Sequence to fold (546 residues):
Amino acid sequence: MTDDADLRTVREFHQDRPGPAPASLDRVRRRVQTATAPNAPRRLLPRWAAPAATAAVVAAVVVGVTLLGTAGGGTSQPSDPASSAPTATEDTSELWLKYGARVPVAAVFAELDQVAAGAAPAVPRAGQLLCSYTAVLTRPGPSPVPGSDPAWSGVLARCFEPEGLIEIPAPVLGEVKGQSPEEQLAAARDGFAAAGPGWGYPTAAWLATLPTDPELLLAGFRAGSRGPAEVDDFTRWQQYGRFLTRVDPLLPAAQRAAFHRLLSGLDGLTAVEAFTDSGKRLLAVRLTSGTVSDELLFNPGTGRLAGHVELAGPADPAASGGPGSSPGGEPVPVRQELLGYAFQPASSWASPSATARR
Amino acid sequence: MSMLHTMAEPRASRSDVAGLFDEHGAELLRYCAGRVGPTVAEDVVADTFLIAHQRRHRLGDGPARAWLYGIATNLLRRHRRSETRGLRALARTGREPDVSDIAERAAARADASAQNRRLAAVLAALPARQRDVLLLHAVAELGYEEIATTLGIPLGSVQSALHRARVKLRAALATEPDADRNAPGGSR
Fold:
């Protein structure tokens, strides 16, 4: 009987806990309706990625999984004349981050470090892959050139072996440079076996040995990076961002804090609050070089990396009307990536190579 | 080596999921908010209905409510750590950790009673399955067989998990309030 005193107490305890906000139900309903609308193009995960559906679906919800047309600022494609859906611009405009108040950069990293300090990195079980699901939005910049990338949104899924972060090629991609997926994976494993853990093949154990002194960490990073050791701050910022994106779930708090100190030492950073369409607060730290800006998004709830935004502009302030234009001459986001990670069994990636014997 | 994945066209109209949402959305949102906080609950419930939409051919004529709870419970497992952290924080401080974006009415009840703090400590210490089973039974009021079906575990496992959870629960509820003062941290 669920009316027993102990069960009733649990029920009352649960009812006393914070409930959903007043607009919460409508917000969720709108998200579900948008993602399941009959006229929304279906570009969700394939069956072979279904076991990792949570992260992917979160991403799918965020981006609305809609492939947008290129012309007319991203209106519905001509092949769908009966569509009564809003224009693609309306479909996705809400999905781009909304920026809020400026925040001191030092305060951002202090907040992130404080939150991350209490969390241990996730530990994959034997046989699990580390999979990333990236919800991507793109749109033409303020001055799109003919033939530039179309505006679209979708979910990018990639899976890696946690040891060495070796990417498991998706079988549908077929051959690359004459190599089958199995051959590509075997080659990568051979590379890892030859080189061992390091900047090229990070492992959780190796990451935990990285120096927490920023100077030492920078020296190691320089030595481990391809290309020249001395690069401009913008290039270094992008390098840090790519590396953090790759290792984020495996990075211990102390090493994460050291990377944050490296990031915060670059000149010209600015930071603002940013909000997802569901109201989730992120912290966006931006570095600009000429007409290009690069932004890393952090989750203040976990201290971890949450995404990446590329911005273009400012263009000619007199120009207006394009989807990426900004009357104030501010750079506008042209590519937005929100990250999600999950550990999942290798068998669920359904790639013959993922479970291939070493 | 990235790729944009494509999925097969769903077979039925979206009225299925809209109807399910109208019928069960609010209840599920409340349940999930009570477990992982109102912010994460929105994601979990949205995912629940999207997965339900994608897999609706599996529902058949079965009970949709229990099925939805099963999907939500699976999704909640991904937030196990934050759920446990929240319960521990409540047990330790008497304050709910995630009250930042809820209505002001929640603030008035943010200071939990001593009994709630004990309950939070017990729930935080329960193994995942026992917590799932206990909450599905006590809060969602699912029967043993429904829980077994939704979690995909044997009926006997449901009964034993529930029994063990209730033994701990009753022991905690029988604790004198004064005893809490010396053990505010809850179980780790």
